[in-house]
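May I ask for an example protein's residues together with how it folds?

___
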Amino acid sequence: MSTNDNNSLPMQAGLDAVAGQGKPRFTPGPWHRNIPPASKYCTIFAGRNTRVAQLSTQGLSETAIEGNCDLISAAPDLFEALAELIRCVRGGDDTAGVSMDDALIDADQALAKARGES
């Protein structure tokens, strides 16, 4: 069985959560980043006052700092979009009426958020 980069959670457990066989172990989204510039305000929030992450900016360019903030704040959206795509590909009753086209639109929107375009 493979593991993720930090070896704390077996990869299969993460795939089971995506497949609807377990609950994600992270703070529910949506997450949002603080106002730019990220080099000054480098906090990711869930809701109004729940801090999810505080980024370290030492040695990073402004572009990398902004990109990291955008990517991290999009994590729950990316997770849900991937889970939706997997459910659509697998089919069955687990799709909850979501079409592949809708799942792809959601994935595009999540990627746009991760790129800082939304």
Remarks:
- The chain has a mean pLDDT of 80.
- The radius of gyration is 16 Å.
